[in-house]
Amino acid sequence: MPKLEEDCYDWWQRHEAVLAAKEKIDPEIVLIGDSITHYWGGEPKSPGAPRRGLGSWAYAFGDKKVLNLGFGWDRTQNVLWRLNNGEIDGLKPKWFVVNIGTNNSTGTKNARENTPAETAAGVEAILTLLKEKSPDSKVILMGVFPRGAKAKDPARAYISSLNGLLAKIAESRQITFIDLRDKFIDADGKLRSELMADVVHPDERGYAIWAEALKAEIK
Q: Number of C-alpha atoms within 13 angstroms, CB side, residue 101?
């Protein structure tokens, strides 16, 4: 499915910007995801969308050529539409970094909430498509970041179940799986507000944790 939800940017304009930029950038690294990826930094920029982690972006990627395919409010079905409609055609990056699935846990009038198993199946379909389109690229699959301020928030159990399924998918495909949930949560299970003030999106210090993890893998 293409665009389903409204956000702080123009979804269709961003899709066209990706199509225009991808071959000019000829990326070594392609990030694929939702607003958590979108708001980090990189190209193409989206008028109206925040850029919350520019310092950590520079630390993680340095002078490497990176294409940001994060789209705010995207679910797995939106990513599949975008990848099937030109966004990675012709690209042969060294790395794909996939961080998607958190929005599938939320139902709206436009799309129902998916089960963890359905979301995991969507992620696996994305991985299959990446392999078909760029078989020599390496893949890092991110565990979905925590959301919800407290340990008993229903989103925590959903993400725990989903990440367990994603870890198994990564193992079966022999790809790297990184789950950073413990880094964002304190000893009492509360989300660390200095890392993720709105309980969904990292701030600069939150993005720095992701940057450190990726820098260790992408050499």
A: 31
Q: How does pLDDT run along the chain (219 residues), one tens digit per residue?
A: 999 999 999 999 999 999 999 999 999 999 999 999 999 999 999 999 999 999 999 999 999 999 999 999 999 999 999 999 999 999 999 999 999 999 999 999 999 999 999 999 999 999 999 999 999 999 999 999 999 989 999 999 999 999 999 999 999 999 999 999 999 999 999 999 999 988 899 999 999 999 999 999 997
Q: Is residue 129 part of a domain?
A: yes
CB atoms within 10 A of CB 13: 13
Question: Tokens 């379909």 correspond to what residue?
Answer: 125
For 86, the 3-state DSSP assignment is coil
List the Cα angle 42/193/168 in 5-degree steps.
Answer: 65
* Domain range enclosing 210: 11-217
Please give the DSSP secondary-structure letter assigned to residue 112. P
Question: What's the structural domain count of the chain?
Answer: 1
Q: Which residue has the tokens 């949930």?
A: 181
H/E segment holding residue 32: strand 29-33
Angle at 76 between CA 110 and CA 13, to 5 degrees: 70
